[in-house]
């Protein structure tokens, strides 16, 4: 039964609404999928506990790992082989995250709010009577925000949008195949070359209120990021932060349009935006799952997991566990308590959470205030093939006069 349900999840027809399948998987408890040598975990309590369990390793196949080294051309920058701290375990992860966190502070994020508000309004100013929320709003906004934080020239922002699109399949982890190696490898090498030059320029001429300059200056007990670590971190901030925030905004708009009462409430009171964002992260999260490797033999529920085998935590299923959130399939920003794993837990809790929340809050509040009388052209909208970073491929709305 578990294998059959996982197979259903992989079907393109399931993208629009995987949640009934998640519910059926959750009823089984932790389930072993023999052909995949994987245990799939769906309950909130189990997922929350396992995200903090040191026996589960984040060091699996990922961007920049040694498994990809053979694929890069000989003249590729050495930084492409630097592993992202997202896919490292302590103590390496602890060291890198501490250094990056010292530059990517709440103050750094908060100072972006006026700029984010202006960018949101610029996107909405261009909206016509028929408006694709994805391509005209949710997709360009996060790239513009992070490029301004990094000090990327405006003329170069389209490059970052293209690179992010090329690398999203790889980050998803469930939709890339060998036939697409050439595309993402080219994007990865081009992006690393660009960021190497960008970092070299900042070393020569540091700027104030510039994230790259802050990362160069970041220090902890005399320790600093190496050049390759810094370049890989900048690439990670863009790629990991872009697609997830795109889906947060688009999923939020979709939920509001499907629930006109909640849409009207947000329009009347923009102060509800933080609660709306948290409910989107619970109800339809941008990241549907995360994968770990058992570093030693362990038991999850009634399943024995040998060392070296995979553990998939279905975060989106856990968020709709009725033991964590009553009436879990209902979209309700007015819940007395919202429990979700949309940003992870434990050591790998999302470093960009404050920025994602800020972008989501501003984008959804301004959308509610400025877009009136809109309705979905198609419901459900079409979805991309991604399983983990699940999101719409188009979200057309029409303004009703």
Automatic annotation (TrEMBL):
Any Pfam family the entry gives: p450
Write out the ranges of the annotated region (Disordered): 56-76
Q: Which organism is it from?
A: Nonomuraea insulae
Q: Which InterPro entries match?
A: Cyt_P450, Cyt_P450_B, Cyt_P450_sf
Protein family: Belongs to the cytochrome P450 family.
Lineage, top-rank taxon, reads Bacteria
List the CDD domains: CYP164-like
Give start-end ranges for the coiled-coil region(s).
none
* UniProt feature, compositional bias: Basic and acidic residues: 56-71
Q: What is this protein called?
A: Cytochrome P450
